[in-house]
Structure formats: C-alpha cells, structure tokens
Amino acid sequence: MFSIAAINESDTVGQWEPLAPTKEAQESALSHKYHEGLLKLQEKDYAKARELLEDVLKDPLISQIQVDNIGSDQHLLQLRFLTLKNLASVFLQQGSKFHDNALCCYLQAVELDSYDSVVWNHLGTLSCTMGLLSVSRWAFEQGLVCSPTNWNCMEKLMEVLTVAAGMVGSVAPQKEKNSSDADFVEAMNRNRLESVVEAVKDVSRNASTAKDIIDQRDISDGQDGLSLHIIGGIQSLLLTIMCAAVKMISWRKLSCSGTSYQADHLESSCLVDAAIAFCKLQHLDPTISVKTQVDLLVAVHDLLAEYGLCCAGMDGEGEEGTFLKFAVRHLMALDVKLKSQLNPNGLEGDALPKNNSGEDSVTDEPSVCDDKHSSEDEEETELEEIQSSIDSALDQAFFCLYGLKINPDSSSEDDLAVHKNTSRGDYQTKEQCADVFQYVLPYAKALSKTGLVKLRRVLRAIRKHFPQPPYDLLVNNPLDNFLDGPDSCEKILCEIYETRGSTEAILNVLFPGESGYEAFKKLSTDSSGPYSDVYGNLYYYIVQAEDISASDKYTGFVLKKEGGEFVEQSANLFKYDLLYNPLRFESWQRLSNLYDEEVDLLLNDGSKHISILDWRTNTALTQRVEMGRRHSRRCLLMSLTLANTVTEQIEIHELLALVYYDSLQNVVPFYDQRATLPVKDSTWNIYCQNSMKHFEKAFELKAQWLHAFYLGKLCEKLGHSPAKAFSYYNKAMTLNPTAVDPVYRIHASRMKLLYTRGKQNLDVIQVVADYTYDQTTKENVSSMLGSITNVRHSSSDQNNNVLDSKKENKLAESDLLDKVWHILYDDCLYALGTCVEGELKHFHKARYMLAQGLYRRGEAGDLERAKEELSFCFKSTRSSFTVNMWEIDGTVRKGRRKNPNIGVSRKNLEVSLSESSRKFITCIRKYMILYLNLLEKNSDLSTLERAYTYLRTDKRFALCLGDIVPLGLGKYLQVLTTAIRDPEVRRICGDTPVEELLEKMFSVFMDHANLLADISTIPEVNSPELSEGNLYSYIHEYIRLLESDIRLDVLETLNEKIRKRFKTPKLSNSNFAKICKHASLSWCRCILIKLASITPLPESVDTANQLVPISKGHLLYVDLQPDELLISSPDGPAQFKGLDMNWFETLNRIKNIAIRQTSEDNMESAVTVMKSTYNFYRESSCGTFPSGINLYTVTPSQAPVEGLQQAPGIVDTLDLSIPRKLLLWVYTLVHGRYSNISAVVKYCDEMKARNKRGASIVTASSQVAPPAPHSSVSSLGSSKEKSTHTESSEAHEANPYAPAVASALPHQEAGGTSTSLNTTEAQKPTTAASQLTRSSSSRAMENAQDGGRGNMNTACVNPADGSKF
C-alpha cells in the first residue's frame, strides 16, 4: 500500500492516507501470478497452476483488453496470449476430458495473435486427436500461412489430408469394383498422373537451368528477373501435387496388405520429383538462410523415407536414389556457402530476417534480428548447430545411399535411422567400389579440404579394395629412384626451370632410360585395367581427406618408430598418386611439405627430448633428417618446374631457399655451440650459394622483406662485403617498417663488425656509419670522418721531410677514430635497446646481443651492465634463477605500445618472424654460456651457485642443458676457490666467512666428486687452479678447520654424508679414500679432545662435590701420549699430518688418570659426546687411527685391613681398538663406573633401539639402566678384551705400548666406596710397573661377566640431580 505525505510538514505525521494501487502495480502483480503459475506447471502441480492462470485471465485488466484497440497495452495482450497458451498446456496434462477446455484456449489465443505458427501447430494436433479433421486442416494451413517453412505443420497437414483421403477412398473402390468403367477410370487417372509427373520434371529442369544462370552471372540478388511471387505460386502447386501423390500412395497402401504393398512407380516418381522441384525452387531464393534450406532437405528426406521412397529413382527399386543424390550435392554446396557468407562477427550474411514489423512487437520465441546483438558465444553456438545439421543430413543421406557412415566423429551408427530402402553398404567387389567412386568423384572435385573430410569413410571403404597401385608399377618404383638417386637430378631440374624446359624433359628426369614415360604409362594402363580412374584419383582425394600431419600428434611422436612409419605411409599416398599423375603440382608440393614437416619435428623434438651426445650416437635419426631434407629439396625442385603462376614460383623459391638455409645453422641437436660447430666446407658453401640463389629469384619476382632479410644474413655467412649485407637489411626495413627482426639484425651486425674489425679501421667505420640508427649521430660522425679525410689530404700535400707534423696528424687521426668508434658503438647499443622495450621485452635475441656487445667492449662498468642485461632471461619474480625466455612467435600480433617512442627516428616495432623450437633451445644454451661467463667475470658467487643448482636440478631443460652442468660447476668453482684465497674477492662475494665457503666446496664434492677430475680441462674454464689435487686440498682444509674448532657435531654429520655417498671409498678413488680417512681421523681427534676436556683431573677433584660411585669394582685409568697422536699414517696428505698443537697441553695432562664420573656442569656435554662416540664406533671404517690412547684397569688384590699395609692392586691393560677405547672412556665418565666393552656396546645398542621406537631422551639417565659393576676378580694377569658384537667391522690391531702404572694402587673400602690412587703416586715413573701383579686370565673374567651385568632395569642414579642414564 502506498501513501504520500509532505516531508517538511510535521503535523501530517501519523495521519497518512493510503492510496489505491497504481496500474503498474496491478500489472506487476499479474505478471508475478503468471510466473507462479508457470512454476507450478513445471512442478506438475496442475491444479494450482490452473487456478493461478485462470485468476490471471479473470482479472479485469486482462479480460477487458480489446484486440482492436491495444495502444499502450501491448504487453497486457501478450500476457493474456501467453496465459491462454500455457493454460491449454495445463488442460492437456490433465487428460482427455479437458481437451475441450484446451481447444477453447487455443482458439482464443489465435484470435489474439494469428501469426504464431507454434500455436496453430498445437491447435491442429489437438483437433486431429479429437477427430476434428476440418479444424485440424484449417489450423495446419494457417500455420503454413504464418510460416511457409514450418515443415512440422506441412508434414502433419499431409497426414491429415492422407487420413481424410483414406476415409473417402475406402468407399470408392467398393462402388467401382463392379463397374464396367473401372479400368477406363484407372487408365484416365494414370494418364493424368503421367502428365503431372512430366510437368513436375519440366519445373525441376527449369529450376536447375535458372540456378546455373544465376551462378554463372553471379547475380547479387539471385533472381535475374524471377519473381518471388511466381516461385511461391509454383511451390504451392507442387505442394498440392505432393499431397495428391501422398493420398494415392496411402490409398494404395490401405488397399493392400502390409507385406505385399509396394509403391507404384508413377506415384512414387510423382512424389519424389515434386519434392526435388520444390527444393530447387526454394534454393533459388538467396534470402533463405542456410539453416532453413537444410531443414527443408531433412524434412523432405523424412517424408520420403516414411513411404520407403528416399532412395527411389528411375526404376523405382531404390537403387537410383535421385533425391538423395540431389540432397548430397546441395548439402555440400550449402556447407561451402555457410563458410563463404560469414560476416566478420561470424554470423551468416543471410541470417537476418527480412520482415521486421516494429520494435515493440512481442513474441513468445526469440527474434532472429537479435542475433546481431548476441554475444560471441551465442554466435558460435548457432554456427555449430547449423554445421551439425549439415553433417547429420549428409550422414543420413550417405547412409541411406551406400550404407556408410561418413562422419567418424559421431558416437555410433545407431544415431542414424535405418530406412526401409537403406543400402547395406556391403561393397564386396572392386566393381561395386568403382561404381560408388564414380558417383563420389564429381563431388570430391568440387569440395574443399574441409568438405572432403565428410567423404572420408566412403574413400576408406573404397581403398580397402584398392590399397595400393598394381604390383607391376611398384617394382623398381621410379619415384623412389628419383628421390634417393644421384644428386645430378637436382642440377638438371634447375636447368629445366631456368631454360623453361618442356614437359617431356621433366618426365625424362622421373622416367629415365630408352623406354621413358610412355612405356611406364602403357604399363600403368595395362595393370590398372578398368579401374584406371579409381587409381588415378583415389589417393589424391584420400590424402586430402585424411589427417596426414604429424604435428597434430603428441610431442616426440616422430622420434619413435611409429612416427617414422606414419610419415612413410602418408608419403606413399602422394607417391601412388604421382605414379599416375607425375605432373600434378599439388602432390609434389604437399609431398615436399610432408618431408619438411618431418625434418622440422625431428629436430625440434630431438632438441628437447634427446641430449646432444645421444643424438650424435643415434644414426637412425640423423639419417632420417638427411633423407628428409634431400626428399624435400627434390620435391620442391619438381614443383618449381611445374609451377604455373608467379605466386607459386615465389612460394617454391622461398621454401627451397629455407631448406638449404636450414642445413647451415649452428643449432641443436646437431651442434652444441661449444666444441661441435658446422664445418664450413665445400658442401656448406654450395648450400649457402643455393639458398642465396633461390632467395634472389624470389626477390626478383616480388620484393618481400623476408627475402631481403635472409639475403643479408647469407651475405655475412659467405663473407661478402658488409655494405652489401647492410643494404639488404635496409631494404627489409623499408619493405616492412614495423618488423623488429631486420632492425635487430642490422645493428647487431654493425656492432659485431665494430668489435671484430672496427678499431682504427676507417673503411669499416665508414660502412658502419652509413647505417646509423639515429640521424643526428650519422651527421656528427660524417662530419668527423670528413675532417679525417681532410687531414689525410693535407698530409699528402706537405713536404715529406716534415715528419713531426705527420706523427701529430696520425695521433690526432687515431684519437678521432677512437672517438667515432665509441659513438657508433653507442648508437648500436641504443638501437638494440629499442628492440627490447615495452612488449618486445621478451625479444631475447636483441637482449643477448646487447650483453655480448657490452662484454666485448669491456670498459668500466660494461661487465656489470652486460650481466644485468642478460639476467632478465634468467630470473623471474618467483625464482631467483630460472629460464625466463619465451619462444618467439611472429604469428601473434599484440597491440601497439601505449606509450609510443618520443624520438623521431623510433618506430613501433613488432616481431614478424617466428623461431623454431630448436633455435629457441640453441638460444637458451648460448645465453646460458655467456651468462655463466659474465657471472664469473663479476665474481657473482651467489648467482653462480643458484645457476649451478638450477642446471643440476631443473627437469624442464635437463636434456637440453645436461652438458652445460660441468661448465656451470666449473665457473662456480672458479669464483669459489678465488674467494677462499683472495680476501678482496671474498669482500665482493658479501664477506662470506671462509668456513662457509669451504662448506660449499664440500657440498660440491659430495654432489659431483666424479666430475672434479675433468673440471680444469673444460675449454671455457681451462684453469690449472681447478686441478683435481687443488680441489681436494680445499676439502682437507675444511676438515682441518672443523677439527681445530672442535666442531664435533659437524664432523659427525660430515662423516655420515661421506659414508652414505661413497659406499666403498677405497674402491672409488684414491682421493676419495684420503678424504674419508682424514674425516674419520678428525672425528676421532675431536672426540678425544672433548673427552680430555671433561675428564676430572686429580688436582681438580672436589671430594665434597664429587659424585659417589654407586658400586665397587674395577677402576679405569687412562694414559695419553700426545707425541703418538701427532703421528699420522704415512700415506696421508700434508693437511692432516698430526694433531693441532693448540690442544697438545690439554691432552698432555691426561697421564694415568683414574676416570671418574664427570662433573654436573659437564654431564650434558658428556652425554652428547657419548652418542657421537657410539656412532663413531659403529661407522668408522676408514684406515687405522693413531696410537697413544692407553686404557687399563686396577683392581684391589684384597679388602683393606686396619694396621696392615695394603697389597698392590692388579693391573689389566685393555687391548682394544681406538673406537672401543673412546666408547669405554666416555661411558665411564657418564656413569662413574667401569664395565667391560661388550656390556657397554650392548647397552648402547639397546639405548639406540629404544630411541628408534620413540622413547624420549631427557638426560643421561633416561635410557636403559647401565650394566652392573664388577664385584670380584677370579684370576689375574694381562688380558685382551674381545667384543661379541658382530655388527661392527672395524679392524683390531695390537697395541704394543705398555702404560706406566703408579706404585701405590687404588683400593676399595668395605663400604663399597672406591678409593682413588694418590695423585703423586699415580704419576711415578713407569719403573714401578714391575711391582704390579698382572692377571693372565682377566679376558676370561671379562667374558664371564658379559652375561651377568645385573638387572638392566635398575637405573644408575646421578646424586647431583637425580637423573638417570
């Protein structure tokens, strides 16, 4: 409800008065109710839908609307019309008892809009169902009045007429059966029918004649005086005749049984001919859209098929197929018309309607005129639907005619209707195939390649009986002899072309010998027999209908065996055709394209998917390339002799020139741009000259920029004068001012000439100055060169005795030339810079030449500028190093740059010449090599590291750049080793610490140890500093540095990496073995130093804070001999000839020291060392370790007695390997007690196993309980311990060194507290060792106690913090 009140009047608040709803609101409510009704109809709630739609009709706005006076109420009239139409649908859904209601709705609807053929169709169908045939006929006729092309109404009208005629005709035979005049009546009817049929044929012939006249004169309106009104009248008569024929056929069908019925020939001919004539007349009207014409043909086909007549013809037996042959011919013509009459937006030119009766008219169906405003997607969909209709109609026509499904894209033959007289398509003999081909051939000749695709299935079926020419022709095949014969034929063909030789001369090249072509032609005729036309044309059209392009296959297809077979089979089709048509230009040209495409794909795919080394060893592929180039050249030469037009000659000359030029290029996969380069021998020179000759011929016929461009490049290759090459480039720029390619090429060549020959060379400088990019520069340089010329002239006029003046002039000239050289060089750089601006930023060729030019000039800052210029190709916003290059595609035209260049001489340039994939890969390789060199020259270590990593790990270009990996590594090592040695270079590299640089060197060793021996011999590196010995010296230096800094964790990781990388280093390389030995020895020394630094010394023991031993037993002593530790193995390198002297004093203090539990402060460090020592024990396998580490145990001989002197203890020297000694030492430090080595190893193994199972590691006490200490000794004597642990493979060597032992031995008190040796007595001379009594069976004691270590679940408690280990 709406109300109105004044906003600024406060006294009206609360007193608003409601207003009546407006007419717009009522209309909106009615529309809403109408749409609700439609929703209910869709939901099949018919009762509710009926209620809502009837409410709409009852509304006064709708019910009172007058058809004659609608005015502005057009939309209300349309609403009423649509409501009646949909209400009728509701009644139909509710069953037959509501048919009267539906009929009433349709009748009211047609009163409102009598131009809607759909409603008329519904009304006619409903009336026929209700038996109201007169109403039904009237409705269908009105529908045809509205839409003459509504074939649905036409078909149903014919059905109604047929039913009506049948009802009347069923009585007539009974009345005439006994009549004496029956035969006379029948004869009269047939005579009349024959007259009608003849008249229909006349109409059909006249329509064909009219169509031919229209096509020949190319009349724009398509009528040539013919009136559409007259054509419409004739069509009306033909419809009447067709209806009468249908009546007669239907009457005859009703009067006969279903099995014995056969349409009368005259009646069927009448119907078929009338249908063909009607369609021909319809096609005379150019305003009829393609879609309408297709729909007409489909409708007539369906009509004839209903009566079994779609394949009927002259004899009425279904073999002639008169209508279908006409339909096929016209459908193919419509297919061509559909493509030729498309406007720029992709719509048919004749798709717009002719009858637009006002913009305000409202219809239920979308108007065709809206098509021009539809989106591109809708336009494309419409075209696809029309094309699909044509394809479906052709499919059905061919299927009925020949039983063949010509469209291979359709899902199955079930999509096609099997009509009564459909052919089975069972071509069992050559004769049948030949008959079909004779019919198809005229259509094939008139069709485009796209149209021929529709004949593919027919041609394939025929080829099954004609797979190849007769065997006699293939024996000693003259075409194979021509393609693979001597090279002299190429020279002969060139002479024939140049002298405009005869056809006979051409044939003599193909068919040499006395018999020549005539004999071969006779053999061909005799062998082919009656099928000469089939053999002579079948393969030509098959090759156009089939997909013979290998480019459409998957990448790398041609590299495989199946790819080669595919190309060979495709080539055979052309060869078969050329055996019968040796002078067919199209076949020679397409055969050359086929071979050229094969070569292109072989090289392009080979450059991406095969490494250069593998390509060189693959002789099969290289032979295919050479053979393909030879075949392509010869086919092109034959095409050249047969070319009739200038356009054809230009095209063939260009293709020939490019085939020759392709063999000259330094590109992958044949060449690597490093060591393997094209050999400029006589063959190379001949190819250059031939390529240039054909480009010159093409340029003479028609001046094109591409020909001039290549002529300039060939001049440079052949060593012609630079002025000649520059003049060709200049012509190319003139012919195509927007092409960037000649601009780039001329200035790149100018710059190359300057840095190779231009310094102080006046002639070169003058040539370069003639083609400057900037006009101002040209003027300035010309002035300066003029002054040089004047100076020379003046010098020649002076007296020869004036030598000083000549010297001064020469110096001035040299300075001036140098200045001019720099100006011209800057001009070249500036010109190349314009070639990479804006949208040309990915034109990488110019960017490479910019970097090359700066690098070759080599002045201050040039190296850095060159590196930054080229870095664009090797970095992106997402990656610090990657290949950021795009394959140049000249077919893609981007928009002009938004900000045009300011300079007058600058142009908006664009790429006009595409590059091949092999050229692109070649560019990547060239640029990568230069970029690595620039990075090395600039000492850019970080970027070199990223480059080396990228080359090593990238998968995209792994095969293309695989051989450049050693080069990248060599450049990286050059800078890395220099940075290690030179502080200044290290500063440039970001002040990276030496240790970090050495770590990088070690990483290189781990990744590429096998390459290090060859790095120094790489031509681009060639550095004696990178010899294998020098490189390994850095690894030793890194290990020594870690050892001197006691980097135990790093050394442990380093040894683990080495062990995993080199499974058997001794067998790999002697240098590898030395590295392994050095790393293992340094790890051992670090552990030793760590243990020495955390072992409590006697003078530092605080008895108050010393941890109390938990149990009694042996005491473990250690005695180190630092002098022995300084000795290394005799085969070790100088870098690790002993222990670092900085740690000598630390080790020298460990003299006969009883090993006690370490202090609380050192406990965590001790646990860490214990883990590392256990890993060292498990993994150390490289050589022997230095002696000088002595362990022995001291056991009291008896319990102490008060008042008596205690007897000396029993000393056992432990003869263990170094790793075991270290493990036993650290174990005692952690747990404060001694245990035999077998128990210690077993304990550590269990601890490691528990860690693997996920047990948490807290401190030294959180693992398995340590083994119980020894409580008694059963026998005395010296012993050797031998572990029962079988996992370690270390070598045990006898230790001849006998440690010095104190004269006063430690003892244990009754309380279980271990008493240490007196410090002074413990360090007495070794002569006191003779006082000790040694057990000869202590090893048996140790082994006996291996199994009695006590309860493993009992933890060893650290009194200091309560932790467990």
From TrEMBL:
Keywords: Nucleus. Residues 1260-1278 have a biased composition (Low complexity). InterPro entries: Hir3/CABIN1, TPR-like_helical_dom_sf. It comes from the Eukaryota. It is found in: Nucleus. Residues 1311-1340 have a biased composition (Polar residues). Residues 1279-1293 have a biased composition (Basic and acidic residues). SUPFAM superfamilies: TPR-like. Its main location: nucleus. One of its GO terms (biological process) is chromatin organization. GO terms for cellular component: nucleus. Residues 347-384, 1259-1365 are annotated as: Disordered. This is Calcineurin-binding protein cabin-1 MEF2-binding domain-containing protein. It comes from Brachypodium distachyon. The gene is LOC100823822.
